Amino acid sequence: MRLGIDIGGTKTDAVAVDEVGGLAQRVRLVTGFGHAAVVETAVTAVARIGELTGLPAGGFSSIGIGIPGMVDSASGQVAHAVNLGVERLALGGELAGRLGVGVRIENDVKAAALGAFHVLGLGGTMAYLNLGTGMAAGIVVDGRLWRGATGIAGEIGHLPVDPAGALCGCGQRGCLETVASGSGIARQWRTDDPLPARALFAAAADGDREARAITARLAEGIAAAVRVLVLTVDVDTVVIGGGLSHLGDRLLCEVHEVLDGWAATSPFLASVALSRRVRLVPEGTPVAALGAALVGGADG
């Protein structure tokens, strides 16, 4: 049995996966803030899953963790996980010392990509387009992650598309992330609703002109990300996941409309069938934690 943990900015998801890849146990807990608290969160998650399965840490065939930030999967080092209050942390080493077993660390989006690939039973090449607070993609080729030369493959949220656009957290202007992400929505649509994207789409459905303009920019930004992934890597499938994916078919229909509009005016884009390659991650499936479980073993 494998153990996978997805450490998010506010919540941590932990799962036990059986020998055929099925979800055996799952727990959720609040993520601590800061270096020591993040380590403690992971240790607690292992203990909670251990209680449910009756296995000690050493009883799992592998343990994998997905976490935001720049991750060196070989050394287990995590850097610049800003939402967790982590600047630099030897998470793999810290956990090995606490648990007495080796732990594999991976970027959370890359882990989710691997999880989505297996959950959907895909083959060939897939890009997992994560639309959360930011935008990033994870790429899977024949069941294995493709990280690139330095591990930043898929960071398409920081591709500038508007030189006069909003300043991005990366220091550039007009990045895809500034319009096609949760933070992009929050910047443009002020609301007290704890789910700004939900409030935005509700207002757009009621005919609010500003809301409709923002949703149009959102759909165009996501469609542009799909186009980049297909034209650069020629992936068979682009799976949309992350917090914004909870908008479901409302979001997917908007993106399809943009892609189909481009195809109607460009024989070239029509020939690559962008719209037919896009799908949503299954609602409620903990793909990041499942992927972390797979990352922990040989499949990663």
UniProtKB/TrEMBL annotation:
Keywords: Kinase, Transferase
GO molecular function terms listed in the Swiss-Prot or TrEMBL record: kinase activity
InterPro entries: ATPase_NBD, ROK
Cited SUPFAM superfamilies: Actin-like ATPase domain
Matches recorded under Pfam families: ROK
Keyword Aminoacyl-tRNA synthetase applies: no
PANTHER family: N-ACETYLMANNOSAMINE KINASE, ROK (REPRESSOR, ORF, KINASE) FAMILY
Family stated for the protein in its record: Belongs to the ROK (NagC/XylR) family.
Name this protein carries in UniProt: Putative NBD/HSP70 family sugar kinase
Lineage of the organism: Bacteria, Bacillati, Actinomycetota, Actinomycetes, Micrococcales
